[in-house]
Amino acid sequence: MSVQSDMQEKMDEFLQLLEESVMLDSPSCDKRHGDRMAEWYARQFVRLTGGTAERIANETYGDQLRCTLGSGEKRVLLIGHYDTVWPLGEAARRPFHIRDGKAYGPGVYDMKAGVLQAIYALHLLQERDRLPRDKQVVLLINSDEEIGSPTSRTLVEQEAIHAMAAFVLEPPTEPNGAVKTWRKGSAHYRVVVEGVSAHAGVDHEKGVSAIEELARQIMYLHSLTDYEIGTTVNVGMIKGGIGANVVADYAEAEIDIRMRTTAEAVRLEEVMARLTPQLAGAKLTVTGGIRRPPMQRTEQIAALYRLAKMIAYEELGIVLEESGTGGVSDGNFAAACGIPTLDGLGARGGFAHSPHEFIYLHDVPGRTALLAGLVERC
Ligand SMILES: [Zn+2]
Which site from 53, 176, 259, 328 is most exposed, i.e. has the minimal number of CB atoms within 10 Å? Predict the structure, then answer.
């Protein structure tokens, strides 16, 4: 029997556990509930795989969870997160339910189903004694991905440098369930402009308008967008000035920049460091930088994708496509350590971060089998 049909037979218990996990609220910024969620995953992992689960103490957010299975030399890293964007009480307001072959509930798609699929993939490998002796699987389940992984980033990087491959349990790209072979990197900057204030009626010529200076900078910054190479610059927030009759001596902007390659990230950092005022008497201060490095589609990543495609075709009879996105994940950190990383190995569904969030139940066995195959054969 195939892994997929094994999983099909376990769907009842899978759904029971999925419901339990969705009904436990786990917002990023609530340590107590985060810890409770970590404890729940630790228990399920140990029970289902016979592996070990270590809680890594965290002062601010829920404890991180590091689960391991096997003791071989070659380490395979699986990366997920248990935090959701939903506040406490959301599960009670909008409980888990199943309708028309879909499961709904807060965090079901991003990414409680993905994490549970990973645990089942390892459970099935273990049960069939198909985890290669020379491998060790490390499953990291983080508590703070939805707020930028402030405390899990180093953990991901420390694990990534010892791994031969990393698989990220974020959802694939719809409508065809493509895995992600690249993600853009992201940078965030703040530009502060200081000018000289003056009475707009009496002394207009004595003023230096911080708003005019910022407007010129915004035009320049937006001109850096280049869809061909995948670079986007977005000034997403501005403020400044105190009244229409005052030449503004202060203005500021928040800027989001995305890029596809490491070389482009370096170039953009230089561009931002070289910003200079265009108006005499204006002063510019630029702070910020790269937040997540790009997950660049290297030849190693392409090879990992070809393996996934082969497994999907041989074992599931589907043609697995690849895609990329401007959105970031912990895959960015893993890939930047130089290890081949494949993202989008979680559950299929839709509407992440929306109350309409759901997963497709009929895809769960196939996706679980795909991940199991990758862990076995990578
Ligand atoms: Zn996510």
Answer: 176
Q: Say whether 283 sits in a helix, a strand or coil.
A: strand
Q: Ligand 1 mean position to 18 CA, how many Å?
A: 16
Task: Give distance in angstroms: CA of 91 to centre of ligand 1.
Answer: 17
What is the fold of 185-292? Alpha-Beta Plaits (3.30.70)
Q: What distance in Å separates the CA atoms of residue 12 and residue 2, rounded to the nearest whole number? A: 18
Question: Ligand 1 centre and the CA of 357: distance in Å?
Answer: 12
> Distance, CA 57 to ligand 1 centroid (Å)?
21
Distance 115 CA to ligand 1 centre (A): 10
* Residues 315-357 pLDDT 10s: 999 999 999 999 999 999 999 999 999 999 999 999 999 999 9
* CA atoms of 168 and 327, how far apart (whole Å): 14
* Prediction pTM value: 0.91
Q: What's the CATH class of domain 3-183+295-377?
A: alpha beta
Biggest CA-to-CA distance, the chain: 86
How many residues are listed for the chain in this entry?
Answer: 378
Q: What is the Å distance from ligand 1's center to 50 Cα?
A: 26
